[in-house]
Amino acid sequence: MPETLHIITGATGLLGASMILELARDTSDRLLCLARPGRCEPGVRVRQALEQAAHAYDLPQVQIEEAMRRTTALAHDVLDEDGPDLPQPVGHPDSVRVWHLAAHTNLSERARRRCFAANVGGTRRLLALARRWGAQSFSYMSTAQPD
Ligand SMILES: NC(=O)c1ccc[n+]([C@@H]2O[C@H](COP(=O)([O-])OP(=O)(O)OC[C@H]3O[C@@H](n4cnc5c(N)ncnc54)[C@H](OP(=O)(O)O)[C@@H]3O)[C@@H](O)[C@H]2O)c1
After folding, report:
1. In angstroms, what is the span from residue 82 Cα to ligand 1's centroid?
2. Residues 83 and 121 sit within 8 Å (Cβ to Cβ)
3. Which atom of ligand 1 sits closest to the CA of residue 37?
4. In this predicted model, what pLDDT tens digit does every residue of 41-62 receive, in sequence order?
5. What contacts 126, CB < 8 A, 6 or more positions away?
6. Does domain 4-140 have CATH number 3.40.30.10?
7. For residue 134, how far is its CA from the centre of ligand 1 (angstroms)?
């Protein structure tokens, strides 16, 4: 059976964690979750985010366990010039789908420079990475608000 790999940025965010739980429920695919380096390991950060999302949406623990069973978590900051190669055991999937959900969500005037660096520069870098990974699709949830 063809193997699909979903690569999710912003895996610790509100949308990222919800997307991971949905992909675990609706597919049997492998998940590569990218999380910004934090106080603990990326896998721990992703699990914490899944627990929060599952609690918010009243989802069963088994959905978290299923998601984590299929998840490889890697540290990645979209501000970094380079990104990770696809690690084993997810090195040679038949198709790769990228869900780019990482974003700087403080849209205040003071945060403008950081917001632009993460959301514009970061998305450009992710697009380049997606090409390197041979991705078949790139789904991006944009950050915008009316003036
Ligand atoms: N939530 C909504 O209802 C909604 C609606 C429309 C559009 N959107 C858009 O969808 C996107 C995601 O929203 P969200 O609600 O999930 O936001 P969120 O909960 O604030 O999550 C943002 C995610 O991006 C990560 N991130 C921030 N800066 C990063 C960096 N430099 N490198 C790597 N990761 C970084 C955060 O990681 P950390 O955990 O390390 O901070 C977190 O995982 C945003 O563009 C938002 O504007 C959201």
Report:
1. 20
2. no
3. 40
4. 999 999 999 999 999 999 999 9
5. 9, 78, 83, 98, 100, 102, 138
6. no
7. 24
Other CB atoms within a 10 A radius of the CB of residue 40 amount to 11
Q: What pTM does this model have?
A: 0.95
Q: Which comes out higher in pLDDT, residue 147 or 96?
A: 96
CA of 119 to the centre of ligand 1 (A): 10
DSSP letter at 109 equals G
Contact 99, 9 (CB under 8 A): yes
Q: Which atom of ligand 1 is nearest to the CA of 11?
A: 43
Ligand 1 interacting residues, C-beta cut-off 6 A = 10, 12-16, 36, 38, 77-79, 101-105, 118, 141-143
Report domain extents, the chain: 4-140
